[in-house]
Structures are given as structure tokens and as C-alpha cells.
Amino acid sequence: MTVTENQAPAQPEVGRARRRKEDQRLITGRTRWTDNLQVPGMLHLAMVRSPFAHARITAIDVEAARKARNVVAVITGQDVKDEQGSLPNAWPITPEQVTPAHPPVAVDEVHFAGEIVAVVVARSAAEARDAAELVDVDYEELPAVLDLKEAAQDTVLAHPDLGTNKSALWVFDSKEAGTGGDVEDAIRQARDGGVLIEREFRQQRLIPAFMEPRSVLVDPTGEQITMWTATQIPHILRFLLAAVLGVPESKVRVIAPDVGGGFGGKLQTTPEEFIAMVLARRLGKPIKYTETRSESLLSAHHGRDQWQKLTLAATKDGTVTGFKVELLANLGAYVALVGGGVPVLGAFMFNAIYKFPAYHFACQTVLTNTTWTDAYRGAGRPEATFGIERMMDELAAELDMDPLEVREKNWIKHEEFPFTTVAGMEYDSGNYEAATARAKELFDYDALRREQAERRERQDPVQLGIGVSTFTEMCGLAPSRVLGSLDYGAGGWEHASVRMLPTGKVEVVTGTSPHGQGHETAWSQIVADRLGVPFEDVEVLHGDTAISHKGLDTYGSRSLVVGGEAVVRAADKVIEKAKPVAAHLLEASVDDLEFSAGRFGVKGTDKGLTIQEIALASFAAHNLPDGIEPGLDSDATFDPVNFSFPHGTHLCAMEVDTETGETRMRTYVCVDDVGVIVNPLIVEGQVHGGLVQGIAQALWEGATYDDQGTLVTGSFVDYTLPTAADTISFVTENTTSPATTNSLGTKGVGEAGTIASTPCVVNAIVDALRPLGIHDVEMPCTPERVWRAIQNASAGSVDETQRDTAPHFDPDQPNQDTPDPEGGAR
Amino acid sequence: MTRITVTVDGVEYSDDIEPRTLLVYYLRQNLGKTGTVVGCDTSNCGACTVHLDGRSVKSCNVLAVQADGHEVTTIEGLAADGQLHPMQQAFHESHALQCGYCTPGMIMQACDLLKDNPDPSEQEIREGLEGNLCRCTGYHNIVRAVQHAAAAMRQGTEAPADSAVPAAGPGAPEPATAGVGAAGPEMPPGEGAPVSAGSTGEGVTA
Amino acid sequence: MIPASFDYVAPQSLTDALAALAEHGDDAKVLAGGQSLLPILRMRLNAPSVVIDLGKVTELQGISDEGDHLVIGAMTTYAAVLASEAVSTHAALLSKAVATVADPQIRHRGTVGGALVHADPAGDVGAPVLALDAELVIAGQGGATRTVPAADFFEDLFTTAVGEDELLTQIRIPKHTGWGAHYEKFVRVSHQWSIVAVAATVRAEGGSIAEARVGLTNMGSTPLRATAVEQALVGQSATEEAVRQACARAADGTNPPSDLNGDADYRRHLASVLTRRAVLAAAGA
């Protein structure tokens, strides 16, 4: 027995800007993307997709395709209808939800342009594509319903057999829930002597547009069927493949190898995955399918797509007395995995950081003949934040107050935490004053306001607008009990194992499934601190259901706050397991041991053993105390008791060229409180990327259909992602209010930037134009929309960009007249 | 089938291929050079960027037969003698990648950019990368990485070690958003400059 | 993403290229830099049975100075144009426009001649070529060549004076030495095709405009020349107000498209604003 020198790092790993472990393979091109994988005898798929948004399939002639060179099979929906199952919806938001069946290959009818109607299996991808061109499908076109508001009228039906387009109405009312007052009372009082702001905002449809197109490879060779797939959710996918297709779960192994981004877009169980599985089993051969970018934009799920009708009641001093939210949310043609639930996640966030006394939320989900929608970065919470943060600006403008002052008047003060909101959430910690003060300082708010005044004064063709947005979100999905109460189909716990290898190296197995977030680095930092082992000695394994057998994957900014805590607990169990072994070997009492910096020392002596030495001794098992199992490996499953509530204050300055409508970002500052930071470099990167996605919603992106239901923005030529040349450098900082619901004190960061930046940018553009009488520009705020807003305002007419966003609701609308007893959106 | 002879990452290959074969598929499927990836079908994303006779091209937009008799360098041929290229090192140091899918193309284009302009301004870097899409990083740290690599390459060192503050390091230009961008914290407090691989202990080498 | 099958020929000379064209006729597509053709083939919007690659026809590459003209071979890449001091000195407008084409990778492969024959009205080469009064040299079967003024070259959307069995060989540009130039391109994101762009080149004399040439991109089915604006600019001082007047009707007679990036009326408005900006920048104001 020797006393070895302490190997532990001198400074704590948590908080350190470690360069990422993941990088080496990525910067040298030695990555395992699904499409890189090849298996002997692998066959390739090509999909035949419907060009029509809604049609009956009357005949499919596959003969020519079948005879084409190296074609192995051509499959239609009829051929596989009894074995392909129906794609699952894991979150029916009400018991009455109307949910159409979703066959992976359409059988009789297609319900959106891009739906798969036939599949060619061939020896090469090129030959599969060649043969797909030869499949002749006869369609009888049916009337398609594309517009969300029209769909809600039920005049044309997306699925005629269902008899309605309305899928579910989900309502929360603070009076009913006992969390607040009656919003209709507040509205009545505001109309009579207070301030009532009524607006309707459009959340356009977006496409997640992860950079790696989806790819799936299924190999049925051997005892288990192995699926490699570009997914965020290998565990959920495995469960659902088994549950839907009737394959024993133990016979299915799902591997998410290196995955190139997701942003919610790979939080899905896709038709392509199910088809590959069905055909691999049927043909007994490995099957691969990799989508093209056009196919990805067309058929991978889209995000957002809401109309928001909002009514904010306040007193004349700017104190909000009630907020009423009526949403229409477009599901697309089918109810996707958690599609219906996405807007419901917003229900708890429209009240944001504020102390509203009364709140009412109603969301009607609606089916249309468009691509299905589901989670996209932020999922429900960006929509909510946009709604309230635009409204707070409108309130400030109405009262001629500074927008930050109005917010401060209503926000929860730092000494009021923990705070239970009108939506029933308990916010554990935060400090909105601190984040806002720091943001103002970094931004030089007062100087920019002066410049704005000068430009207005001299009628500069380039006007300056200052945008403000605060945000909070509920992330770290989620307490299983809460998810259960919302009818979500799974729990929200996370699992981790820490394995001590005999050589002293540590393997961490996590149930989270990173696809760019840097878990390998961050989890190593956490474990290095906990166990007192070198950062370099920790290996993080994930994304393979045979290795990480238990987990609920990565989405909803959950990985660190839930999965990271599971890692902490598993590591702590390793120490607990090691303790009696150490005591035995050191011939000391357990009570006399102290564990510090990776070493068990006997108090008052220089005797000690490192955890690695104990790991080796425990592996050898030659000299263990009686009744102690060999090995220190430990598991933990953590189910959080609450969500995590990061927050932040974002400020931006936009220049608006009133001649062309062009906008240019001058400055963007954000100060986010994401709790205790494990790796500041990774946090900063998450914020930067989130900001650009949120800014892109404000300025550039929008999925658009033509009258026939064809996706016009079906390639990167038309779905305009910003480039480096379109964006600027950001100023990002953090304040820290540790979370109280996990031992590290962390909060989620993945969605923060995206949530706050969209309203911040739109508020800036509107702020620049407000003197012209403009109070909204529909997103994306294209130069043409901005120009038209200016033209119409100067012509004294109603802003044409708001054709459908009237500044005040029509007299017969519920907010102006007798409230609709259902409170439902129309 | 057409016979082509192409030198890729310093090795000469000869193959009979269909004329319709895109260079990117030839690299990936025939040669196993899967470091070069496909991100779109309209030549917008730049993920497939390689060097053809020393200049950047989108390898989805070149037929393999057009590369006959020419020389191709991919991300897999960038590191020399087991040492990362300064651009690869800078991407690592500056956290200029997250999912990493755009990274090979981004690095190849960034190297090309410095060939024309060894000391680019932030705006020149941004414009030089306009043919490459990234969905994760917001480009901020990619721009920083190119600044660091440019500085390192001008100094002929392997990494921009020991510079005081990255963006304001020797020769590194101020961000175009004058004042505000430069005032912001470029690196997390307490960490200071991007440090060399040795000092963070990761020892990333090719 | 995978083109349909085709045969490939790579002639080594113009004569062989023309012979290949004669042999394959309608079934063939000519591959210049391929930066527009390959996306079309990948999306299977076109499926020629033969692709004739001009990449090895070296006589079509290069830039030469022929006294009062610059002669640019049709297969000269954008990158070569940008690197040419002769072009930036004597036809600065072309340099400025080419600098905005797509992105660096595409400029390394794409050719000026390929873009002109492709004749996408949103392309950035047509307007400057038109504004600079260039001439296009076209080779036909049997060694015949003809020269077409730029004004007659662009016939319609994706249609030029180059016949099915002909090839564009040269772009001859009269030198505009000492002329200021500016290409004002309006896009929403930088890698987009022009929503509208204006190519302006101006000869200034003592603070006023002696001569001006203005071409418009994506304001109709072909590049257009704003001759009325050019005339109105002559003799004007290079000031915001004077130029504004002259450029006000830049969009007269145009027929711009309406699409995702803008309706026709918006494009007409943009044309006048961008023309003013381009002219002022070209005049060094």
C-alpha cells in the first residue's frame, strides 16, 4: 500500500472554459455521421412523394420501376399497410383530441405535399432515385386547406373522415385554477378607465434546418435489429418502434452516432425511420436512407405557426391587471410526436417574469394540409415570450413610458423568490434587476436613446430603433408528475452510470443524447470535480441504447439540469461504494475517512488511497470487506421536482432604412442568468447560436406555401438562413442566481438566446417606426414588409402588413363584446 | 464509365466512375473520405467545400470527371505531420463548432480566405464565409477563430498562445460593431485568452 | 441530389467542342463552370443525355488587352476577372458586379460566359455587360463567328442570341478607363440572388456627370438598360438632389417579377432608390 500524490486538478473543473473533447474528430473530418456508415449488402431507399397537398391515390404503377436496373423492391402503402403501423403522438393534450392515423407510407390519401406514397429499394442510392422517377402515381385531387384561420372554420377539411380540422382545445384559467383572478373582470375594469391593449400577432412557420440532413440505417443482421439514425431521441425512438411495430423492445437497438444538430427538428419518430425498419425486416437486408435537403425542408417537421390574439389589461400607471391569450396553432397534416403539446408549453410562460393578477390561456390546435409541426428550439416558449414582450412594448408606447420601466413595474423582485406565478409555476430563483442593470450598462442604453432622438429630429432616412426583451422560460423537462398531469406520454427523469475502470479511467454513461451541445466535455468536468479525477480520464458514452440502456434523451434544455444531476448522483454513489473498501484497506473506521480531491484520507494521518486505487482493488476483489460486491460502478436516476427557470434581459439596436425597408443590426447585448455555469465557453456558444436562430425568425426565415399547397421555400435558395455576412458579433454576459432544484445550481441554456431575441429585434424595428404610427410588422420583417408599413402609414391608411392583424378586434369579437363563455380562440 | 485519376490528400487514385458522379460522392463513397459532407442540394451550404488545385470549391458542384488530372485537398488532408492546421487549432480554441457538421467546409473555406487576404477585417472574414451555413454557432466564434488563425499564421506559430484578449490580440482587428463588440467579454471571465492545447491539457492532435 | 445518367465529353479545342455540339444537338448540355448547371442536374430539372465540358478548351480562357477593348474569354472564371487589374482599371463595373456573385467557392468555378448564356435575369453579369456596351462573340458551325452587341444578346428568360449549335467565345468590352463604377445589389441574405441590382458607371468631369451608363438586374426577363436615366444624368452635378431627380424614373418600362422576395411595385421603387445610390457611388459622391 502506498500513499500516492494527489492527481486532482488544482482548480475546480466546474466553471472552467474547457475546450471541448468532441472537437478533435469534428475538426479533422473523422466523424461518424449516419450517412458515413456502410454495411455489407446495404440497400438504399428513394422515396416517391406526393406533389399534391390533398389527394386520393387512385392507382400506382410500379412496374417500370421494378424492372429498372438493380432495383430490389418497390413498395406502396397498400403493400405494407398491415405491418407499418401508425406514427405515434405521445402527447394528446386533451382526452378528446382528434388525432388522424399517420401511416408512414400513405395508403389511400395524401394530406400534405411531400408525403411518401411509394418507396424504391435498390442497390445504390442513384439507382433507387432513377427508379423512383419511373413510379407512376394517379391522384384525384381533393380540396386542400392551407390557411390556419380558414382551417379553424371547418369549411374545407384536411381529413374529411374526421369531420373537423379542430384537434384539441386546451384551456388554463387562473380563476378556475385558483392561481389568480378573473381576467374578464380585469378587462372590464381596464376598458373603463384603465388601458386595454389588444393585438393579434403572427408566429410564422419555421423550419429547424439542422445542418445534417436526416439519415437512417437499419441492419437486421444478427439477433438485434440495429438502427443508426440522426436523432435526438434514441431511447424514445426505440420504445416507440417496439410499441408501434410489435417488435420486442429487447430486439431493437437504436444508435444515434454523431448527430449534426437538431434544434427540436430531430425530436421525432419519422416515417422514414419506420419505413427503413419495416423494409429491413421484410427483406432481411440492411437498408439505408439519407434525405436530400429539399426532402428535409419539405417533410421533416416544421415549427411555430400560430396566430396569437392577445388582450392586456392595465391601470394607467402601467400595472398589468390581466392577460388573456387566445391561440390558434397549426399542427399541419398530422399530430406529430409532441406537436399538440408545443403550444401548451407556452401556456405557463405568457405571464413571463411578471406578477399578473389574472390570466387566461386557450389554445385551439388545428389540422391543415401542410407539413406537420412540432418542436423547434424553444417550443412554445418563444411564442409566449414574443407575445408578452411585444405587448409590454405596446403598453409602454400607449402610456408613453420607457419600455424597461413598464417591465420593472410589473416584474417579480429578486427578494420575492421563490414566487408562485399566476400560471401556477414556482420560480425558484432569479434577479431581473441585476440582469437588466448590467445589460443597460453594456448597451449604453441612454446614449443610444439620444442618438435615436437626434435621428428623429433631423428626419434621417435611416432611423434607429431600440429593442427590449426580457424572458424567462420553464426548461429542464421535466418533473414526471407534472408531465403526467399534462397527459404527456413519458416521464421526465434522466439516468446516468459512472463506471470505475480498473486502470483508473472513468466511464460516464448518460441517457441524454447530445448533438452538438458538448455533453462529453461538460459531464467530464462535473465528474472530474466530484471524483477528483483528471478531466482527461473521464470518457462520456451516450446515444446507443445497448450502452446507455436507459434515458429520455436531449431536448427542452433538460440535459444538464436533469441529466447532469443524474451524473452527480451516480458519482456520489461511487464514492459511497468506495468508502467501506477504503476503510477496509486503510484499516480505519469509515467514520475516520474524509474524501477530498479524489482521495480517501484517514483523519489526522497522512494515510490515504485514491479512488483509482480503490477501483483497482475493488476490481481485483482480492481483499474486500465481507458482504461487499466487487466494483464501484453506480447508477442514478434523477427526477426533478421542478422546472428550471433561466432568465435574461436582451437589448438590441436596429437601423431601419426608411427608403428601402432594409434593416441592419447595430448592436446586440444580452445578460442571461442560467444559474451556475459548468463551462462558460459552451454557454456562450449556446447563447450565440440561439440568438441567431431567434433573430432569423424576426428577420429572415419563414416557410411559405403557395395556393396549391406547394412549399415555396423548399430549398436553401428560398428558405433564407443567415450567413456570417448577415450577422454581427454579440455582447453576452451572465448574472448568476443558482437554481435551488439541483445540486449544481444549474439552469438550462439551450433555448435562452432563441426565446428572447425574436421579440427584441421586432420591438427594435417597431420602435424605429413608431413615430410614423406603425405598431407592428409581421415576421419575418422583410425589407418589403417594412417598406409597405411605412408607405401605408404615410398614406394614412391601415398598415397593409397587418391585413390580418387588425390593431383592434372587430366589435363582434369576444374581447370587445360579451366574452365567449368557452374562452376559446376562433 | 469514365476513367479518372485524381490526387486526393496527397494520394493518387484511379477509378472508373459514372460521369454523373459528383466529386463529393466520389470522395465519400469511392474513397471513404467521409469528412467531407453533403448539407444541401442547391450549393448554398458549403458543407462540402474542398480545395481543387489549391482553391476552394463546393464539391457538390463539381463532377468527379472534372477533377480528372487535378489535385484535391479535403479536411482529412489538412493536418500535416500529425499537427493540426492552425485553422483547425483555432476552431478548437475558440469553440467555433458545436455539432460540427459545417465545420470541415467552414475550415476549408476559412483557409482559402486567408490565402487571398492574410490579415482580414471582421467584415472581410464574414463576407469570405458567405458561402457556408452554420446553424449552431451564430458565426460569432467562427469569426473569432479565423481572426486567431490569421494572427497565428502571420506569426508562423501553431496556436495564438498567450495573447492577452483574443479579439484585441496582436494584429487582431476590432469587431465592426465598433465600441460595443469590443467592449464585450470575448472570453468567459477568469479564463483569459484561448490557451494552447498544451495548457488545457487536451493535447488535441491530428 | 443525384443527376440522371449522362455521357460526358470533354473536347480539347473549340473546333472539337462545336463538333460535339453538332453531333449531339438537343440532347446535349454545355458545361462551362457548372455552378448553375450542376444544381439543375442534381434536382433533375434537366436530364441531358450528353454533357459537353468546355473545361479543357483553354483557348476560351483568359483576359487580353486589345487596345480600346478588353477581351474576356467565355470560360474565364469570376475569380480570374476579379484578379485582373486590366478589368478593374478599364471595366471597373464588371469587377464590382462580379465581386457580388454568389460566394467565393462559386466564383472560383463559375465563368462569365457560362453566366451570360445561362441568362438568369437575377444574375449579376448581364447588367454590367449591357451597361458597358460589350459585344459578344459567338462561334458557329464551320468556323464562322459573329459578333452581337449586348443590347441584342439577351432575348428572354434563359434565352440568348446563342443558337443551339453555337458557343459564346468572347466578351469584348470597350474600355471605360477612368470611369467610376458601382454595383448596388439588394438582397435579404448575402448568398441570395439579386432581388434588384443596379450597375452604374459614370465619367465625371469637374464635379458633374459627363456620361453615365446604367444597367438593371432582375427588373424584367432580361437585364435592362436605363437609357432615359443615363440621358437625364448627363450634365448633372453629382449631388444627391440632382441625381435623385434623374433616377426617379429608373423603373419606367421595366417588368419586374413578383415573388417571395418582393412584388413588382416594390422592385420598381427599389430600382429608383438603388439607381440613385449606385450613380452617386460611381460618381464618387
Automatic annotation (TrEMBL), chain A:
One of the record's GO molecular function terms: oxidoreductase activity
Region (Disordered): 1-24, 794-826
Cofactor(s) demanded: Mo-molybdopterin cytosine dinucleotide
All copies of domain Aldehyde oxidase/xanthine dehydrogenase a/b hammerhead, residue ranges: 28-143
InterPro entries noted in UniProt: Ald_Oxase/Xan_DH_a/b (IPR000674), Ald_Oxase/Xan_DH_a/b_sf (IPR036856), Ald_Oxase/xanthine_DH-like (IPR016208), AldOxase/xan_DH_MoCoBD1 (IPR008274), AldOxase/xan_DH_MoCoBD2 (IPR046867), AldOxase/xan_DH_Mopterin-bd_sf (IPR037165)
Keyword annotations: Molybdenum, Oxidoreductase
Tree of life domain: Bacteria
Oxidoreductase among keywords: yes
Keyword hit for Glycosyltransferase: no
Biased composition (Basic and acidic residues): 800-811
PANTHER family associated with the record: ALDEHYDE OXIDASE 1-RELATED, XANTHINE DEHYDROGENASE
Protein name, UniProt field: Carbon monoxide dehydrogenase
The species this protein was found in: Intrasporangium chromatireducens Q5-1
Automatic annotation (TrEMBL), chain B:
Pfam families: Fer2, Fer2_2
Gene Ontology MF terms: 2 iron, 2 sulfur cluster binding; metal ion binding; oxidoreductase activity
Positions of the 2Fe-2S ferredoxin-type domain: 2-78
SUPFAM superfamilies: 2Fe-2S ferredoxin-like (SSF54292), CO dehydrogenase ISP C-domain like (SSF47741)
Annotated stretches, region: Disordered: 157-206
Residue stretches of biased makeup (Low complexity): 159-195
Pathway: Alkaloid degradation; nicotine degradation
Keywords: 2Fe-2S, Iron, Iron-sulfur, Metal-binding, Oxidoreductase
Protein name per its UniProtKB record: Carbon monoxide dehydrogenase
UniProt lineage: Bacteria, Bacillati, Actinomycetota, Actinomycetes, Micrococcales
UniProtKB/TrEMBL annotation, chain C:
Pfam family, one: CO_deh_flav_C
Protein name: Carbon monoxide dehydrogenase
SMART domains: CO_deh_flav_C (SM01092)
Any one GO molecular-function label of the UniProt entry: FAD binding
Limits of the FAD-binding PCMH-type domain: 1-178
N-terminal signal peptide: none
UniProt keyword annotations, A-Z: FAD, Flavoprotein, Oxidoreductase
Keyword Flavoprotein appears in the UniProt entry: yes
Superkingdom of origin organism: Bacteria
Coiled-coil annotated spans: none
Listed InterPro entries: CO_DH_flav_C, CO_DH_flav_C_dom_sf, Diverse_Substr_Oxidored, FAD-bd_PCMH, FAD-bd_PCMH-like_sf, FAD-bd_PCMH_sub1, FAD-bd_PCMH_sub2, Mopterin_DH_FAD-bd
